[in-house]
Amino acid sequence: MTSVLYDAPGPRAKRRNVLLSVVFVALLALLVWWIWRTMDDKGQLKWSLWQPFTTSEAWTTYLLPGLGNTLKAAALAMVIALPLGAFFGISRMSDHRWVRVPAGVVVEFFRSIPVLLLMLFANEFYARSTNVTTEDRPLYAVVTGLVLYNASVLAEIVRAGILALPKGQTEAAYAIGLRKGQTMTSILLPQAVTAMLPAIVSQLVVIVKDTALGGVMIGYTELLNARSTFAANYADVIQSFIGVAVIFVVVNFLLTSFASWLERRLRRSKRSTGTVLGVENVDDINAGEVGGAPAAEGGKTAI
Amino acid sequence: MTVKLTVLSAVGSLVWGTLLAGMRVSPVPLMRGFGTAYVNIVRNIPLTVIIVFNSLGLADIFGVTLGASDFKVQGFRLAVLGFIAYTSAFVCEAVRSGVNTVPLGQAEAARAIGLSFSQTLRLVVLPQAFRSVIGPLANVLIALTKNTTVAAAIGVAEAAYLMKTMIENEAQTLLIGAVFAFGFVVLTLPTGLIFGWLSKRLAVKR
What we know:
heterodimer, A: mainly alpha, MetI-like fold, 11 helices, disordered C terminus, B: 206 residues, mainly alpha, 9 helices
């Protein structure tokens, strides 16, 4: 697709490309060498600092429980947020104004507030107004923050999924005499859910990344928080960061690949209407497209 | 503070993100590889990890202070650096998708009149691409505004940090929470509306 920007390289262009490659490699090598030397200067390359990653104790005591907690918070948030999101998404499309407007206000409000503020607020709220124990409070606060935000994002995903279905589906349902509720539950939702699957999976990536906020700000013992005890124990700050970053990249990369595999599979299958809510749509919904339904415009990517 | 963080990071990531996008569509395979790797890695690391690493790793161990003598200024600059590194990956993806929306004929015509790759990109494709990605870029900006709260993790006195200290010291939890929440709604809503209007106005008519 992008190759339209340049011709197939001839002899001169090939030489120039090679030259550019060499220059680029040299620059990269210079950067790598500089990082390497700085690390060496500060004694960060010593094997003893990297060695903890090879011991089983480091994994079983710090990293795996941390990863477990990260995934636990993410899974809990997803499970609670899904029905809430479906509820708000469907209410927002209601024919009654007194249902539609409040649902819209709630969704837009929570979508425009940073998750971190929601978490901090939930933490303080639980501390003052409920008797949740101190050990449980961080988990509660993290999950509450994530649920409030992601329920509103999922509401938009559900709405976009239903709106993306061909209009004929609703019309056919009405034509055979189904009521509005029946149309929704037996015609639209089943199709929309399949169409939304890739979008929901890629929303999980966002949730997993956001759990890290809870680790730093309200002391939930997830992966990033486990990192600091790990680093304190082995005195390897840099190495612990690199290790944690690699774990996050692997987990999220697996999720993203799964999402795009699902998307391809759904696009191929002949039994559906071929409506799929892709990975790109999620990114737009997350950023908060103000007003207007996030229509299925492909090829957009944001945060 | 939130606004200052947002503006500086937005400008920085726009420049770096566009450069990355240029690399990702360039004829040199190695640059394409680097661009792709950068985007895929950075996008999958939580922003919090990047920001905290900048503070604990870069500053404390390597002594990168970015020319700041005062701890607060240093935290601010490190935070901006982190936001630029993270956000530019998303800017890159937005710009690249914009490049893909420019009709084939445009690039073909540019090549036909003998423009080189960089000329094609600079004079013909990018100006059109930018106008079509104003919407997605606005989304990146809104997300960035919300993301600046993460800087509280390294003690930059922006909205989330202030809210945390206020909420712990004052009695009216609900009121303070509502005020800060409202502040963000006020910041993000107009951004979306203005950019939505701009993207309609500047859209390339075809």
